[in-house]
Each structure stands twice: as structure tokens, then as C-alpha cells.
Design a protein that fits this description.
seven-stranded mixed sheet, Aldehyde Dehydrogenase, Chain A, domain 1, 24 strands, Aldehyde Dehydrogenase, Chain A, domain 2, 2 domains, six-stranded mixed sheet, 481 residues, alpha/beta
Length: 481
């Protein structure tokens, strides 16, 4: 696929400068694979080196940048994204295939993330600790303060090309750290557009670089000891391998899942059906907290499944730029084919399909499976596709154990009006977040977000990310005599 003469490659953002390279990156439009969404460049090894050196140099300024300046810069970025809402939303839809309604929602969330970042920049604090707990410490007091950790290496994924990058950029700026961000090669144009806003925000020169990179240069960044923290969002297999190669730097991993939902006997069935349809099939299931495994109480099973399948069949597949589209394409035809193969495997193992299961190019129909063995890949691994596997249950405790029967533990949803069951789920589910009376796909951007087991390490959410991006230091004051 060639870039047309009318397509001008977007330059990349290197430490406050716009540069080009000999290595062009053509960005595919998932809805129209023969029509590129645009083009930019991969950074060269020399440009990578310039970005890292600039980040190391900039840290001498960013670490001393007062809170009001950090807050002001983040507010300018937030306002700039809000002003370009329609253009950025359309760009997300074009290069990622996300329906325009969801793309605009992602823009709104990023506006919030940078606004929260400004607020958190202005309230990073410490505490006073009395130390006179024994006679030898008489007259001593401790004062704690958080200090920025240093240059940060960040890698963000394709499924939320703006908001998941914002969850790395905003807390880094808020804490006073320079950052080098590798956006996804499948959809780098969104963050390069945001870089135009960042460049006018008043940050010290060299404190932000946004560089598409080849895998080889990305690997170099992972092992680079000049970075003090690596923050990665993506697949578990890649993330845990990165941690092994990261050296002594801190590592924050926000990885995948195969999120479970429990629909208890006391649940509001209409609410549960509607929310589960949204949680399962938004952005063609390409969300790490997308509903993949569904456990429904046997007394509700027939009615719930009838309504759920009917709802799935009514969802509209189509052009991401059409505001009536519910489900756009997957990121590429290979992803849709992988989903089809996994569904076929489940059927060969005794599963039954109630709707969907078909692929056409990059599009994959909303799919519901039952009677599927737990060791099928659609149950065991992360489908990252519009595929739901449903099971009936009789005992609530058994449903919790079934959700926990996974190497993942990101978030889980529990629809129940039984308070004891809600508390039991909170105490027993092996996940980073339990969402009661909603789907695990729920997230608001200031809450702590992350998983256990293979789903990750550390937490995002601006304030919680700042904790990893700073070092806690104590000063002990001793009274005279």
C-alpha cells in the first residue's frame, strides 16, 4: 500500500522539535485497508539517542518546576484537546477503526485525565511523622516529601491511542518527570496531533518526546538504564518479557485480561443485559476489560440469554465514521481471523454458537458461545474480540471460583442486589477492581486501575501513577539538646 501524493507524512516530536526520518511509517485505515489513514516516520537510532539525552538534560529543569507551572501546562493541554475534540475524534476513528461515538468519548476522557493531572500536580504532598516513640528518639520529627524519579519510558497500545497514552503523559508531567513516549505503530497519528498541543503548553525544552519506533528501538528503550521507570500497556507476553529486560528501573505493567461478569439471582435483568452488551462488544471487544466470560444464575439464564442474544444481533456493524455504527472493524484482518479460529476451536470442543462467529475482512460479528469447555482458548486466554462465553451457575461461591479460575485478574463485574454477595465478591475475587452492578469495562480516570496475576503490576489512575513516578524521601529533624 503506497501513500498517495496528497498524503503528507506527519513529522515526529523529538524533544520539542519536529523532525523527519528516512524510515516512513504508513498508517492503515482498518475500515478501508486499501486507503491509508496517513503516514509518519519511525525514529532513527540517532533520533532516539537525541530524545533520551534531551530527557536526561531536561530533568534538571522539570524536577524543579513549581507546581503552579506544571498545573498550568496540563490545563493548557486539556483545553487544547477539548478545542480539537472533533478533529482528534475523527482521527482516532480513522486510524484505529473505533466508532466515532466511542472515539469522541475517548477524547473527552483524555481532557479529564490532563485536568486531573493539573489538580494532582498541585497537591502532591507529604506528612509529618512523630518519631519520639522511644527515649532515644525524643525531640525528633519526620517530614516526608515525594520527589520526581527521573526520565520515564512509556509504551502505549492501539486500542485507546489517546487516553492510555494520556495516562502516562499526564502523571509524568504532574510529577516533574521528562518522558519519551512510544505510541502504537498501528495508530501513532493521534498522539502526534496531541504533541502539537503539548508543544505550546510551556514545558521545558526536551521534557516530552513522542516517537514512533521500530520493535528494535523499542527494545532498546526497555533496557536503557537512563530511564528510571518503564510504563507499558499491552499484551501480557510482551509486558512480562519487558520486565525481565528492564534492569533496575521501576516497571508498571497494565496488561490484558479475560474479564468475568456474574449475574446474580437478585440482579436487575434488563440493566444487566444492556450493560453487558456494551461491555462485551464496544470497540469490537478490543478492550482489556471487555466482558469475555459471563456467569448467569440458572433462574435467570433463559430470559437473560434470550435478551442478550437478541441485543447482540441488533448491533450495527459498519463504518466507524457513521454515528449510527455500534461496532467497527477490528484493528486488522489478522485479528478477525484469529477470533474466528478460536471460535472454531471452541465449537470443535463441544461449544455451541448462539449468534455470530463470522469474519469478513477486518469485521467480526458479535459472538455468543455456550457449552464451551473451560480449557478452550476463548475461555482461557484473552480473546480481545467481540466474543462472549456464557455459563449458568447455581451457587454464588461457585461463580466466584469460576471467575478466579484464570491466570488473569484485571477487573470483574457483579450484578447483584444482595449486599452480602457484593461484599463476598469484593473479598474473594482475585482482581484489581470489583465493579458492582456494572460491567468490568467501567473505568473513570482518577480511580486506581490495574490487575493481579498475569494482568499487571502497579496501578494507573493519575494519583496512583504519580506514586510510582516519584520517590518518597524523609527528612528527620532533631531538636537541639
Amino acid at each position: 500500500m503506497a501513500v498517495s501524493s496528497s498524503t503528507v507524512p506527519h513529522p515526529i516530536y523529538l524533544a520539542g522539535r519536529w523532525v523527519e526520518s528516512p524510515d516512513m511509517l504508513i498508517v492503515t485505515n482498518p475500515a478501508r485497508p486499501d486507503e491509508p489513514a496517513g503516514a509518519t516516520y519511525y525514529a532513527t537510532p540517532e533520533q532516539y539517542e537525541q530524545a533520551v539525552a534531551a530527557a536526561v538534560h531536561a530533568f534538571e529543569k522539570t524536577r524543579k518546576l513549581p507546581a503552579y507551572q506544571r498545573g498550568a501546562a496540563l490545563r493548557r493541554i486539556s483545553a487544547g484537546i477539548a478545542e480539537q475534540r472533533e478533529e482528534i475524534g475523527r482521527l482516532i476513528a480513522t486510524e484505529s477503526g473505533k466508532p466515532i461515538r466511542d472515539s469522541l468519548t475517548e477524547v473527552d476522557r483524555a481532557v479529564l485525565v490532563f485536568r486531573i493531572g493539573a489538580e494532582e500536580a498541585e497537591r502532591i504532598g507529604g506528612e509529618v511523622i512523630p518519631l519520639d516513640l522511644n527515649p532515644a528518639s525524643r525531640g525528633r520529627t519526620g517530614i516526608t516529601r515525594r520527589f520526581p524519579i527521573g526520565p520515564i519510558a512509556a509504551i502505549s497500545p492501539f486500542n485507546f491511542p489517546l487516553n492510555l497514552a494520556a495516562h502516562k503523559l499526564a502523571p509524568a508531567i504532574a510529577a516533574g518527570n521528562p518522558i519519551v513516549l512510544k505510541p502504537p505503530s498501528k495508530c501513532p497519528l493521534t498522539m502526534l496531533r496531541v504533541a502539537e498541543i503539548v508543544s505550546d503548553a510551556g514545558l521545558p525544552e526536551g521534557s516530552v518526546s513522542i516517537l514512533p519506533m521500530t520493535r528494535a528501538i523499542g527494545d532498546r528503550m526497555v533496557g536503557d538504564d537512563r530511564f528510571k521507570l518503564l510504563t507499558f500497556t499491552g499484551s501480557p507476553s510482551v509486558g512480562w518479557t519487558m520486565r525481565e529486560r528492564a534492569g533496575k528501573k521501576k516497571v508498571v505493567l497494565e496488561l490484558g485480561g479475560n474479564a468475568g461478569v456474574i449475574v446474580d439471582r437478585s440482579a436487575d435483568i434488563d440493566w444487566a443485559v444492556g450493560r453487558t452488551l456494551l461491555g462485551a462488544f464496544s470497540y469490537a471487544g478490543q478492550v482489556c476489560i471487555s466482558v469475555q466470560r459471563l456467569f448467569v444464575h440458572h433462574e435467570l439464564w433463559d430470559e437473560f440469554m434470550r435478551l442478550f442474544v437478541e441485543g447482540a444481533r441488533k448491533l450495527s456493524l459498519g463504518d466507524p465514521l457513521d454515528p449510527t455504527t455500534d461496532i467497527g472493524p477490528m484493528v486488522d484482518a489478522g485479528a478477525a481471523e484469529r477470533a474466528r479460529v478460536w471460535v472454531e476451536e471452541a465449537l470443535s470442543m463441544g461449544g455451541r454458537i448462539l449468534t455470530g462467529g463470522t469474519a469478513e475482512g477486518s469485521y467480526f460479528a458479535p459472538t455468543v458461545l455456550v457449552d464451551t469447555p473451560p480449557d478452550a482458548r476463548v475461555c482461557r486466554d484473552e480473546a480481545f474480540a467481540p466474543v462472549v462465553v456464557a455459563f449458568p451457575f447455581e451457587d454464588f461461591g461457585a461463580a466466584i471460583r469460576a471467575v478466579n479460575d484464570s491466570r488473569y485478574g484485571l477487573q470483574a463485574g457483579v450484578f447483584t442486589n444482595d449486599l452480602a454477595h457484593a461484599w463476598s465478591a469484593f473479598e474473594e475475587l482475585e482482581v484489581g477492581g470489583v465493579i458492582v452492578n456494572d460491567v468490568p469495562t467501567y473505568r473513570i480516570d482518577h480511580m486506581p486501575y490495574g490487575g493481579s496475576k498475569d494482568s499487571g503490576l502497579g496501578r494507573e489512575g493519575v494519583r496512583y501513577a504519580i506514586e510510582d513516578m516519584t520517590e518518597l524521601r524523609i527528612m528527620v529533624l532533631s531538636g537541639a539538646g
